[in-house]
Design goal:
Elements (H helix, E strand, L loop, with lengths): L15 H11 L3 E3 L6 E3 L1 H20 L3 E2 L5 E3 H4 L3 H7 L4 E10 L5 E13 L4 H11 L8 E10 L13 E11 L2 H21 L6 E4 L11 E8 L5 E11 L1 H6 L2 E3 L5 E3 L1 E8 L1 H10 L16 E5 L7 H16 L2 E2 L2 E2 L2 E3 L6 H11 L3 E5 L1 H6 L1 E6 L6 E5 H29 L1 E3 L3 H7 L14 E5 L4 H11 L2 E6 L6 E2 L6 E2 L2 E5 L3
Parallel strand pairs: 3-7, 15-18, 15-19, 22-23
Antiparallel strand pairs: 1-2, 4-6, 5-6, 7-8, 8-14, 9-10, 9-24, 10-11, 11-14, 12-13, 16-17, 19-20, 20-21, 23-27, 24-27, 25-26
Length: 504
C-alpha cells in the first residue's frame, strides 16, 4: 500500500518537533525575526491571541479585576528586594545600561550615557507593581486590590521555539493584594479555576489542576498552582500558573495597610498568568499531519466560503450567492457572538485555496459552485474530520451551523481527553517507571511515555534524580491526591500520588 500523502512533512510520528515547526509555518501563524529568539506573530496567529485575550479578559472582569499598565523597565535594585525572586530570574534578564548611542571616530554607533542604575527589561512585574501597590494601599478599605495587565515580557531563552519559548512573548499577569491569607489563597484558587475553564471550554484542551513542588515553585511564592495539559507527543505543557505569594513581596515592597483594629499590617499578595504559549499548546493538542486545527471558539474566522468559478460567466452569480450565504451565517449566534465568516474570492485554483485553509485550521469550509446553486447544496469540510468534504443541503446547513461548530468544539475536547486517558498510567514499580520513560529506538526520538501517576514521599532528592536521569519532572500534585501508599523510589510512606512526565 502506498504511503498516504500529507500536507505536513515530516509527520508527527516521524519527527514531532519538526512537524510542529512546519505546522506553524504552513498555517502562517508566526515566523522568526532578525532578533534571535524573537518572533513576529502574523495576522492569523494574532487573531487567535486576540480571541484568547478577549475571552479571558471578560472572565477577569466578571470576577472584579480591572486592567492597568505598568512600566516595561524595572530598576535592578527592585529585583534584589526578594532574594528567591532574583535568584530565579537572574539568568534570564535583559539589562539596559545606557541611554543613548553616539558615533565614534569611525562613525560607528556606540552606547553612551551610562545609567546611574541598570534597568531590567520586564521578565515579570511583581517588584515594580509591588512598589506602586505600596502607594495605593493605605487602609483595609483599599482592599482587595485586584489588578491585571496585558503586556509583553522578556526572558533571554537560549533554546527558543515559536510560541513555546521565545525571548519576548505576550502574556497577562494578574496581581492582587488582600487583607488576610485566606482571602489571598481563595484568589489563587479562583484564578486557577478560571484558567482551567478557559483551557477546556475555549481551547478544547483538557487540563489537570494541582500544586507545584517546592523545586518547581515560582521564585518567591509560598505555593504555586498550575494547569497541565498533555500534548500529542505525550509530553506535558504547563499552560497557566497561579501563585500565593504570602507576605514575601509585601514585606519586600512595603505593602502595608491600617487594619480594622487600627494596627498596621502587611498585605497578602497573589500573582497569576498565561501567555502566547497557549497557542503552542493548542497547536500540539489538536493539529494533524495536514496542518493546524483551531477550536471554533478561538478561530479568527470560523467559516470560509470558497467560490468555485471554473467559467468566468458564472462568477458574478456565484459571488452573489456567496455574499448571501455570508450574510445569513453572520446573523447567527455561536458561543455568545456572531459567527465569523470570510469569503475567499482570490484568483487562485480552488484546490490550492482549499488546502491553504486546511493548513490554517479553519473549522468549516463551504465550497459553492454553479452546479451547487442549481441543486441548492454546498460542499462542507469539517477540519476536525481531516481534509474530506461532503455535500449538504444549503438551507439545512445554515440552520445547523451553530450546532456543527459546537460539535467540532466538543469533538476536539473529547479527542484530546481520550488521548490523555489512554496515555496516563498508574505505576507502582520502579523498573516499569524507567521503561515507561525510556525510548526503545536507537535514535531515542520516537514518541513515548505519557503521564505517570506515582507515589512519592516528598523527598526532593528523588525529584532531582529522575530529572537528571530521565528528564522527567513532577508536573503537579493533583488536587485530589489523597491516596496514601509507598514511595516508588524510597519505599517510604507517600501521602499521595503525583503526576510525572517529560515536558516543554
Amino acid at each position: 500500500m502506498a504511503k498516504q500523502r500529507n500536507a505536513i512533512n515530516p509527520t508527527r510520528e516521524e519527527d514531532y518537533p519538526e512537524w510542529y515547526q512546519q505546522v506553524v509555518k504552513a498555517a502562517d501563524l508566526a515566523e522568526n525575526t532578525p532578533v534571535r529568539g524573537c518572533m513576529v506573530i502574523k495576522p492569523w496567529g494574532y487573531g487567535i491571541w486576540e480571541n484568547i485575550r478577549d475571552a479571558l479578559d471578560a472572565m477577569f472582569k466578571e470576577t472584579g479585576h480591572k486592567n492597568a499598565y505598568f512600566p516595561l523597565f524595572i530598576p535592578k535594585s527592585f529585583l534584589q528586594r526578594e532574594a528567591e525572586h532574583v535568584d530565579g530570574f537572574a539568568k534570564e534578564c535583559a539589562v539596559v545600561t545606557h541611554s543613548r548611542l553616539e558615533a565614534d571616530e569611525d562613525g560607528i554607533l556606540q552606547p553612551a550615557g551610562e545609567l546611574e542604575e541598570p534597568l531590567i527589561v520586564r521578565p515579570t512585574s511583581e517588584t515594580i507593581i509591588g512598589e506602586l501597590f505600596a502607594r495605593w494601599v493605605q487602609s483595609y478599605r483599599d482592599l482587595p486590590l485586584l489588578i491585571n495587565q496585558w503586556a509583553n515580557v522578556v526572558r533571554w531563552e537560549m533554546r527558543p521555539r515559536l510560541f513555546l519559548r521565545t525571548a519576548e512573548f505576550l502574556w497577562q499577569e494578574g496581581h492582587t493584594v488582600h487583607a488576610t491569607a485566606v482571602e489571598a489563597i481563595d484568589e489563587t484558587n479562583l484564578m486557577l479555576k478560571i484558567y482551567a475553564k478557559f483551557a477546556e471550554e475555549w481551547l478544547a484542551m483538557p487540563v489537570l489542576c494541582g500544586e507545584k513542588t517546592e523545586a518547581e515553585r515560582f521564585p518567591g511564592a509560598e505555593s504555586t498552582l498550575c494547569i497541565e495539559a498533555m500534548m500529542q507527543d505525550r509530553k506535558a505543557l504547563q499552560a497557566g500558573t497561579s501563585h500565593f505569594l504570602g507576605q514575601n513581596f509585601s514585606k519586600a515592597c512595603g505593602i502595608k495597610f491600617q487594619g480594622v483594629s487600627g494596627k498596621e499590617e502587611f498585605g497578602w499578595t497573589t500573582s497569576w498568568g498565561v501567555s502566547t504559549r497557549l497557542i503552542g499548546g493548542m497547536i500540539m493538542a489538536h493539529s494533524d499531519d495536514d496542518g493546524l486545527i483551531v477550536p471554533p471558539r478561538v478561530a479568527p474566522t470560523q467559516i470560509v466560503i470558497l467560490p468555485v468559478t471554473p467559467k468566468e460567466e458564472t462568477r458574478p452569480q456565484v459571488l452573489e450567492a456567496c455574499r448571501s450565504i455570508e450574510e445569513q451565517l453572520k446573523s447567527l449566534n455561536f458561543s455568545g457572538s456572531g459567527i465569523r465568516v470570510e469569503i475567499d474570492d482570490r484568483d487562485l485554483r480552488g484546490g490550492e485555496k482549499y488546502w491553504q485553509w486546511v493548513k490554517k485550521g479553519v473549522p468549516l469550509t463551504l465550497e459553492v459552485g454553479p452546479r451547487d446553486l442549481d441543486n441548492k447544496t454546498v460542499f462542507v469540510g469539517r477540519r476536525d474530520r481531516g481534509a474530506k468534504r461532503e455535500g449538504m443541503n444549503l438551507n439545512e446547513l445554515i440552520e445547523e451551523v451553530p450546532s456543527i461548530l459546537e460539535d467540532i468544539q466538543q469533538t476536539l475536547f473529547q479527542r484530546a481527553l481520550d488521548f490523555r486517558e489512554e496515555n496516563t498510567k498508574v505505576i507502582d514499580d520502579k523498573d516499569e517507571f524507567y521503561k515507561f520513560f525510556t525510548p526503545s529506538g536507537k535514535n531515542k526520538s520516537e514518541i513515548h511515555g505519557g503521564f505517570a501517576l506515582v507515589h512519592w514521599d516528598r523527598d526532593s532528592k528523588w525529584e532531582e534524580q529522575i530529572k537528571n536521569e530521565l528528564k522527567v519532572t513532577i508536573r503537579c500534585i493533583p488536587e485530589d491526591s489523597k491516596e496514601v501508599g509507598v514511595c516508588l523510589f524510597s519505599g517510604n510512606p507517600s501521602p499521595g500520588r503525583v503526576v510525572m512526565a517529560k515536558s516543554y
